[in-house]
TrEMBL record:
Pfam families: Asp_aminotransf
Source species: Streptomonospora nanhaiensis
Keyword Transferase: yes
Protein name: Aminotransferase class I/II-fold pyridoxal phosphate-dependent enzyme
GO-annotated molecular function: transaminase activity
Entry keyword Transferase: yes
Highest taxon in the source lineage: Bacteria
CDD domains on file: AAT_like (cd00609)
Record keywords: Aminotransferase, Transferase
Length: 423
């Protein structure tokens, strides 16, 4: 094709995209693909929790769960999640309903108290920075902003964060106190960390003696395929490397049972667990053990969690399949976008041409399809390539999701082809 012919072809594609967009806008849709919330049918799977703990209020060790106390959380529930979160039960705490809250509190305690291995409180440091693998989870970045923690982006690779870069930054700068990690089915690109990544994180020299890995294993049991991904045991790796206090493990049942009324967990070295318990003892006389008991009754054991997650998968899988099918049908081979095909978790990352993400999100919004703001996947809301869009397929019904995805592909074509014409 001559340049002129290919320009004409592009013009034709643009006209078609404009017409498709006008049709889309005329439909007056109101669809939301923003947050990774479970759909009502997923919550229904745990409806039996509402009738529990039934006519008992006694835990396995005789604890009356109605009363104060039990800062570590109920042993029978910790037992169930010890395997899921790869943490010995004696080093695992079952706490409130939100792991994000635990990450928040861990930062606050590190700011206002002295961490094991620390020379001083983080507030007394001139500067504090966290390494932020990108794309990443916007609420992690919001915590850093909230507490004035500088964010240093590090690129993700198919094996986890770019470890050459992580090692270089952690070794060079004592202000670098931590790294955010979503090690399995990462939010938003679905990446799971390789064994080598985990080993290097555990063993790398850090300039800060109190460096912490914030290991947010939010999607530990959230598989979408028959080949569940297993990741290396980070706590063991840290201990084996002589850095036993390096990692805080977080997890929750938010996307297993009820997103708003699950149970959150904290796992770490004995010294860190003692540190958190001492801090927690000032802010609470004990967690919600009634909720913990009913979770233990409902889930029963680790196999119970896995069986429950299979039922979640049955509901989620058709949605993730539809996302792939529609992206492939509408954008496959066009060069306008690439996307991830996650084996678990809650998100698909769509990468459009550089400089197009904000405009795609704006066009979609004008046509009644709300997406997570472009840039949210990067520190300070700034995606330097303006190319990453996070898709959260879980919440909408199947038909709404498919409509929203079709609409999104129209916007990607419209914005992408226009850019090519101008370029
Ligand atoms: N971490 C990640 C990576 C998440 O995606 C989410 C939920 N979107 C959370 C934490 C929130 O967890 P929780 O409900 O336990 O606060």
């Amino acid at each position: 094709m001559t340049t002129e012919q290919s320009h004409d072809a592009l013009e034709g594609q643009f006209e078609r995209a404009q017409k498709d967009y006008a049709d889309l806008a005329a439909r007056g849709l109101s669809l939301d693909l923003t947050r990774g919330k479970p759909a009502p049918e997923q919550l229904d799977l745990s409806e039996a929790l509402l009738g529990l703990p039934g006519d008992t209020h006694t835990a396995a060790d005789g604890t009356d769960v109605r009363n104060y106390g039990g800062l570590q959380g109920l042993p029978e529930l910790r037992e169930i999640f010890a395997g899921v979160l790869q943490t010995p039960v004696g080093q695992l705490l079952a706490l409130g309903n939100s792991s994000l809250e635990l990450m928040h509190d861990s930062i606050v305690h590190a700011l206002l108290g002295v961490l094991p291995g620390s020379e001083r409180r983080w507030v007394d440091e001139e500067r504090i920075a966290f390494l932020c693998p990108v794309p990443g989870y916007d609420r992690h970045f919001a915590l850093c902003e909230r507490f004035g923690i500088e964010m240093i982006p590090v690129a993700m690779t198919p094996e986890g964060p770019d470890m050459d870069e992580v090692e270089r930054l952690a070794a060079a700068d004592p202000a670098v106190k931590g790294i955010w990690c979503v090690p399995k089915y990462s939010n938003p690109d679905g990446v799971s960390y390789s064994d080598e990544t985990v080993a290097r994180l555990a063993a790398m020299p850090t300039a800060a003696p109190d460096f912490r890995i914030f290991w947010d294993n939010a999607y530990a049991a959230h598989h979408l395929t028959d080949e569940p991904v297993e990741i290396a045991d980070v706590l063991a790796a840290c201990a084996d490397s002589g850095n036993p206090d390096r990692v805080f493990v977080f997890g929750s049942s938010s996307k297993i049972t009820f997103a708003g009324s699950g149970v959150a967990f904290f796992g770490s070295s004995p010294a860190n667990v003692k540190w958190l318990l001492a801090n927690n003892s000032k802010r609470s006389i004990g967690p919600d053990k009634v909720n913990q008991l009913r979770h233990a009754q409902f889930l029963r054991d680790e196999a119970g969690v896995r069986a429950h997650m299979d039922r979640q998968r049955d509901l989620l899988r058709p949605k993730f399949d539809a996302v792939q099918r529609i992206l492939e049908a509408e954008l496959g081979g066009t060069g306008l976008a690439t996307w991830t095909e996650p084996k678990g978790g809650y998100f698909v990352t769509l990468r459009v041409q550089d400089g197009c993400a904000k405009e795609v999100v704006r066009r979609a919004s004008e046509a009644g399809i709300v997406l997570t703001p472009a840039g949210a996947t990067h520190p300070y809301g700034d995606d330097p390539d303006d190319a990453t869009i996070r898709i959260a397929p879980s919440y909408p019904g199947q038909e709404d999701l498919e409509q929203a995805m079709h609409g999104l592909t129209v916007c990607v074509r419209l914005v992408g082809i226009e850019k090519q014409l101008k370029g």
